[in-house]
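Now for a concrete sample entry.
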Amino acid sequence: MITPPELTPLVESLRREAADARMCLRTLLAQVIAFAVAAISATLIAGERAPDAAFAVVGVLGVVIAVQRIGLHKFSTTNRLWGYQLHLERLRGTPPHPLSLIGWEEACRAWRIVQATVFEAIYTTPRSRLARLPTITDLYPGFFVLRQPFRERLAGYDKYRRELRALSLAIDKIHRTIDEHPHGEVGDNGSRLQRDCSDLESRRQHLEGRLIETSCLWWMPGVRAALGGGCYHAGSYLARIFAILGALQLFSLLPLLILFLRQYVEGPLGMRGWAAGVCTSLGLMVWALNWLSLRRRRKILEEELLSIHSCAIMWKAVALAHSRAWGATVNSERRRSYTERLARIACWYARAPLLIREISDLDDLPEEVAERSPGRDLAEPEIRDVFFSATTWKGGFCD
């Protein structure tokens, strides 16, 4: 087990690992860009003497897409590591707490069960063997999108926010009209404006309440920042790198397009011309599907459940789950069934993911959630009662 004095070396090790992952990605990106530009240029030069060389760019397209997927993996790793550091920093300066005693490998093992279960509860993921094939998983645009209840909640938040912004502008306009005219100058219109302003204020208070209700998607820091009147910026490095690689993918199709146009202009297409046209069309389709998938995966990575902020909250929930599944006292029977107990807790989290932020403030989880899985007909209020009926401490570490 890790004691508090040993946390500093662990944090330094995690930061080194995260920095190494970023440096590995930068090196790989520089190499693939150089390779792609050289390969495409060579193909264009050789196009006059060896037209069939244009088909070699299909391999370039595949390599660039593979590097983009590696980039997602590297950034996911660094966010997970930095999220754990943020989790530890939030425990710093507090009384000794079991959550600071969980070892790194113990935490990773619990993460692979708890976080994966919660992720599948929030997002649509491939389930069948066919859907889990890398090509389908990476390109099918229906994967890794918010499930229907959360999409509806997010849509409601956006709707109320737009209405609230319009109401605020209308109220400000009325106030300016009243302020710009001396008392009594507007006559009866003044009383009407005051009544309209009062009605709009009541409507705004109602919308603010609805906005708070729909903004409890704790894994979206941008939504929560906007609720406070601010904004959230996750950085643009990954977006720009993917944009460069996406442009390279389109550029890699240029030799095939040139071959197709040349065959079309010179006469009957023939087998070579048709093959070039089909490959160009398929390449454009793959590019479009890959772009849609990457945009969604990058949003999860930078602004949703896999962001550093959300990972820190999940790490605390994972540590609580591990602490309850493992137990404070030595119990051979309990520890032999650790994985099963941990999975049951993960299922409770997954049944009510909106409660995880509140659950993370608990000192410990009830034994009931490790002993049995939640029933299918269990509603969120009942799940809340199970977690909060016998709580002993609320620390408020979770932001």
Summary: The two ends are 26 Å apart (CA to CA). Residues 361 and 394 are 5 Å apart (CA to CA).
